[in-house]
Design a protein that fits this description.
By secondary structure, the chain is an alpha/beta fold. The protein has one domain: NAD(P)-binding Rossmann-like Domain (Rossmann fold), CATH 3.40.50. Helices cover about 45% and strands about 15% of the residues. The chain has 8 helices and 7 strands, in the order βαβαβαβαβαβαβαα. The chain has a 7-stranded parallel β-sheet, sandwiched between helices. Strand 4, helix 4 and strand 5 form a beta-alpha-beta unit. The structure holds NADP nicotinamide-adenine-dinucleotide phosphate. The site of NADP nicotinamide-adenine-dinucleotide phosphate (NAP) has 32 residues, from helix 1 and helix 4.
Length: about 240
């Protein structure tokens, strides 16, 4: 039986990916800050689902992750779904800094911890949900888009490091468009909105196929392809709401 840990499994995409892996007979460790929101997953298969309270912004998070790995008896797949984000055109300081703390510091803490674990234990697979928001700087969500771009680059860097050092660590960078989860609560009329169930299915498929980068879905892949081609002098003048 394969073993996976999902951080950020208490709601949204991470919750659905955890549900899918459990249904496919994986031994699963699930974590988030709201441990009570993990109980429905635990109840699906109590004998092979383990829960932990982990806050990626806390310095103790690495220790808790290692304890969870011990609990499930090893690790094949680390899945990082923990993330926050808001529109912040007023550039409120607390929102910008909180986003940096979770999506940049917390991300680096956890990905680094699991990279070192795999490096010393024969390798494994690291998959992360980043976003299409990292493709370009978005004026309505500066910290969110900047941290997502950071995550994309960080994964690319670690993939090169792993190859150079023969660490046998694979990566999948998952970049969804809009998904109907609590993260988007309060935002209305979003185009090409996807369900978390559909996105989770595509994520597990991408992981099984060892994809390096996966934009979900094909409509968003086409859109971001063209976004990247927009020259900066035009991008600067574009109004995205
Ligand atoms: N929804 C979208 O349109 C969309 C699109 C592209 C990418 N994404 C990305 O997908 C990921 C998952 O988001 P979602 O849409 O599924 O939103 P969500 O339902 O709000 O889920 C976010 C998850 O992250 C966890 N989390 C947040 N802060 C954490 C912390 N400090 N420590 C540990 N866990 C933490 C939350 O758990 P607790 O609050 O219980 O800790 C929750 O389980 C995020 O990285 C997001 O940026 C979302």
């Amino acid at each position: 039986m394969k073993k996976a840990i999902i951080i950020g499994a208490s709601s949204g995409i991470g919750h659905e990916v955890a549900r899918l892996l459990i249904s496919q007979d994986w031994i699963v460790g699930i974590a988030a800050r709201r441990i009570n929101k993990l109980l429905d997953l635990k109840n699906i298969a109590p004998e092979r689902v383990y829960t932990a309270q982990i806050d990626v912004t806390n310095e103790e998070a690495e220790k808790s992750l290692m304890q969870l790995i011990d609990c499930i008896g090893g690790l094949d797949l680390y899945f990082h779904a923990a993330g926050i984000g808001w529109k912040n055109p007023e550039l409120k300081e607390d929102i910008e800094l909180k986003t940096m703390d979770t999506n940049a510091h917390g991300f680096t803490r956890m990905i680094g911890a699991v990279y070192r674990y795999f490096m010393n234990n024969g390798g494994g697979h690291i998959a992360c949900i980043t976003s299409i928001a990292g493709t370009k700087g978005l004026g309505v969500a500066p910290a969110y888009s900047a941290t997502k771009a950071m995550q994309n680059t960080y994964i690319q860097a670690l993939e090169q490091l792993s190859t150079a050092k023969h660490h046998n660590i694979r990566f999948t960078d998952i970049r969804p468009g809009f998904v109907d989860t609590p993260l988007l609560d309060g935002t209305t009329n979003l185009p090409m909105l996807m369900s978390p169930e559909k996105v989770a299915y595509s994520i597990v498929k991408a992981i099984n196929r060892h994809r390096h980068v996966c934009v979900i879905d094909h409509r968003w892949a086409i859109l971001t392809f063209f976004w990247k081609l927009i020259p900066n002098w035009i991008w600067r003048r574009m109004k995205l709401s």
